[in-house]
Amino acid sequence: MVGAGLSGLNAALILERWGYEVHVIEAKERVGGRLWTLDHMPGSPEGGGNVMGANYGRVFHMAHALNVPLRTPPHTLPADYFIGNHRIARNDWATSSANPLSEAWRAIPPDRLMGKLNITNPLLETRAWHDPILMASDQSAASGLRALGFPDAAIELIGSNNSYGNNLNETSLMTLYRIMGEFARLSGPALSVKEAAEGNMRLPEAMAMNLTRPVRKGEAVTAIHQSASLTTVTVESGSALEADAVVLALPVPALRQIEVTLPSSQQALLESIDYHKVVQLHCIVEEPFWESSGWSGSWWTDSLLGRVFTRPILGTTRHNMTVWINGDDCDALNSLDEATCTETLTQALWKLMPSAQDLTSVGQLVRWSADRYAGGVWALWRPGQAATAHEAIRAPAGRLFFAGEHTAEAYRGMEAAMESGERAALEVMRLLA
């Protein structure tokens, strides 16, 4: 098993349960992959996967089975808006002269504009995105939104904080439909998201602790070779491990760094898949400085800062504040060294919120694209890829099998990772049975 994120750990636990001898190799000095709880900061904010969606059945089952306590997350404070250098209180959005939207659209806040896709969404059913006829009509979000009648101002605002593509020209419209359809299916008062009470990394840590053999951490795989009856996995130290099969449960950017022979069509596809860029700056706020100014505490901006999420640290008057920047807007920040990047973001934060400076301290800069074992936060499908790439990317190659959120059939996020590990384990068992 190469990779000790949720997908690799779930596959390993399933295979062990059925009597197989499993070795898990992890390049980092910790398990969890793109789950990363910042335990060194007050409030232990999440640098990786934030919440467990209401439909994450496998995740919830594993948490309950391993006695990992869950809770409803503290509510993130409501967001006001900073658009074109204008501050707009959330309750004033619809009537503000700084609102750039046309009359028919101006009542929709920026963070709800993409929800208009559900009026025409052909992917409201869970498996509808597998329909080849529907998916054949895929196009870029930029052209698709315009064809659907979204005004230019709305498209610009959506592009300012697009969590599902690095820019709208390279974002699949069908991917947006699929994500909005999933959100629509999850709406309802009986459903709520959860998080691990002591940090989401507690789940993969508990999974790793339940393996028969400890995870071999800090050992990056450099090459995998296979014959008709055997695979050989080589790590950076030069040592090798022989196995009947290998599950590659790691993001595509990490997979590209391993010397491995795959079918040419599959290799070409792996080279074409992008990953979403995210930069985060995690801060601690000692007192709610926004209250004296009449603001809500969080911000949605069309500027360098992207979105600013603020939520209380339970049992204190302090708050975790996270600056979250998406997509190609991260490029300039990723070109800077860590100190300069941090300083650039903090100066922009003080400019937006001058009263924050004396009450806010910086805790951690997170740049997922700069992480060689992640390469970004999740896989992206280019226009037209979702119809063809998904099945091909996960196809077994001899004794090699593939897991990870990018290979999941029906879900996204943590549940996608768990689902893919389950499927890969079953594929291995079919081979070895």
Please provide the count of β strands. Answer: 19
What proportion of the residues form beta strands (DSSP E)?
A: 15-25%
Class inferred from helices and paired strands: alpha+beta
If helices are DSSP runs of H or I spanning 4 or more residues, what is the number of helices? Answer: 13
Distance between the termini: 18 Å
What spatial form do the alpha-carbon principal axes imply? Answer: globular
Biggest sheet, strands in spatial order? 4-3-14-15-16-13-17
Radius of gyration: 22 Å
**Spans of 5+ residues with little confidence (pLDDT < 50)?**
none
| Helix content range | 25-40%
Mean pLDDT: 93
Oligomeric state of the chains present here: single chain
**Largest sheet, if any?**
7 strands, mixed
Question: What's the SSE blueprint?
Answer:
Elements: H1 6-17, E1 25-26, H2 57-65, E2 70-71, E3 79-83, E4 86-88, H3 132-135, H4 141-147, H5 152-160, H6 173-185, E5 195-196, H7 202-209, E6 216-217, E7 221-226, E8 231-235, E9 240-243, E10 246-249, H8 252-255, E11 259-260, H9 264-272, E12 274-275, E13 278-285, E14 298-301, E15 307-312, E16 319-326, H10 330-334, H11 338-352, E17 360-367, E18 379-380, H12 389-393, E19 400-403, H13 413-432
Parallel strand pairs: 1-6, 3-14, 7-11, 10-19
Antiparallel strand pairs: 2-5, 3-4, 7-8, 8-9, 12-18, 13-16, 13-17, 14-15, 15-16
Helix pairs in contact: 1-7, 1-13
Describe what you observe in this structure.
- The chain is α+β, with helices and mostly antiparallel strands and 433 residues long.
- The protein has helices at 6-17, 57-65, 132-135, 141-147, 152-160, 173-185, 202-209, 252-255, 264-272, 330-334, 338-352, 389-393, 413-432, and strands at 25-26, 70-71, 79-83, 86-88, 195-196, 216-217, 221-226, 231-235, 240-243, 246-249, 259-260, 274-275, 278-285, 298-301, 307-312, 319-326, 360-367, 379-380, 400-403.
- The chain has 13 helices and 19 strands.
- The strands form six sheets. The protein has a seven-stranded mixed beta sheet with strand order 4-3-14-15-16-13-17.
- The longest helix is centred in the C-terminal third of the chain and has 20 residues, at 413-432.
- The chain is globular and about 70 Å long.
- It starts with 5 loop residues before the first helix and ends with a helix.
